[in-house]
């Protein structure tokens, strides 16, 4: 799988000719609504995403961004998967009901060659989820936005009984997300082959140092990969 980080919790995942987009934020809507200063330009044009399927972890503006999703849904025939808050918002702004797919924690769904298993998340959107993504024996974990809690680790590990090839985790430590120390402890317990930090470098008021995360993980024996926004890796 080729994974491209498009900023915050957003990724483009390409596998076997299929394209999955997770939590795309490619607009200035957060800046316009909340005044947070955007540090990075959009990683690509919305028209470049060309998704076969879209997965949204929760209903916050830097994850469910109507300014990105409305043109994205118009430009594609992709289904949009997400928890109840995402489905509700999709309905409110007029997305085709037939393209909205409700997901539930622990229940696996197959779309476009990917297997999606939503995982628990502890965030201010009570319906927030993370994602365990599988394709051709590869297993990736995306934390979405979440706080750290030992019980959360246990619940996620229950759903990831097979080894993870990579874990993509938030570590900004603000607005109901785990901090660097907590995120490092989280991945140590998940035991992925590699840990990748996310949810930083987008807004000056809500970021953290990925190198500190890498140092904390490496000190505990977990290799890390730091991507630039727009950067890709193959797993």
Model description:
This protein has 235 residues and is of the alpha/beta class. It has one domain (2-227): 4-Layer Sandwich (Metallo-beta-lactamase, Chain A). The chain has helices at residues 29-34, 66-75, 84-92, 150-159, 180-190, 210-219, and strands spanning 2-7, 10-15, 18-22, 53-55, 79-82, 100-102, 109-111, 114-120, 129-135, 138-142, 166-170, 195-198, 232-234. A 7-stranded mixed beta sheet has the order 6-5-4-3-2-1-13, with helices on one face. Helix 5 crosses helix 6 (210-219). The model has no long low-confidence stretch (mean pLDDT 95).
The value of Rg in angstroms is 16 Å
Shape: globular
- How far apart the termini lie comes to 5 Å
Query: Could you estimate the helical fraction of the residues in percent?
Result: 10-25%
Outline of the structure:
The protein is α/β, with parallel strands linked by helices and 235 residues long. It has six helices and 13 strands.
């Amino acid at each position: 799988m080729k994974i491209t980080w498009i900023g915050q919790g957003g990724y483009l995942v390409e596998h076997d000719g299929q394209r999955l987009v997770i939590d795309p934020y490619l607009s200035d809507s957060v800046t316009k609504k909340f005044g947070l200063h955007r540090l990075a330009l959009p990683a690509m044009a919305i028209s470049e995403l060309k998704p076969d399927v879209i997965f949204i972890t929760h209903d916050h503006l830097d994850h469910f961004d109507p300014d990105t999703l409305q043109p994205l849904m118009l430009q594609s025939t992709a289904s949009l998967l997400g928890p109840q808050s995402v489905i509700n918002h999709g309905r409110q702004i007029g997305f085709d009901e037939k393209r909205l797919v409700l997901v539930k924690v622990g229940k696996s769904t197959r779309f476009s060659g990917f297997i999606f298993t939503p995982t628990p998340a502890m965030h201010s959107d009570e319906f927030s989820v993370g994602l365990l993504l599988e394709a051709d024996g590869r297993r990736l974990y995306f934390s979405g936005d979440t706080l750290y809690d030992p019980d959360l680790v246990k619940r996620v590990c229950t759903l990831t009984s097979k080894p993870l090839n990579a874990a993509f985790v938030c570590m900004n430590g603000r607005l109901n997300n785990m901090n660097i120390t907590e995120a490092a402890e989280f991945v140590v317990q998940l035991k992925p082959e590699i840990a990748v930090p996310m949810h930083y470098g987008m807004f000056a008021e809500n970021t953290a140092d990925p190198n500190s995360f890498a140092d904390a993980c490496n000190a505990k024996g977990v290799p890390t990969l730091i991507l630039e926004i727009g950067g890709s890796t193959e797993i």
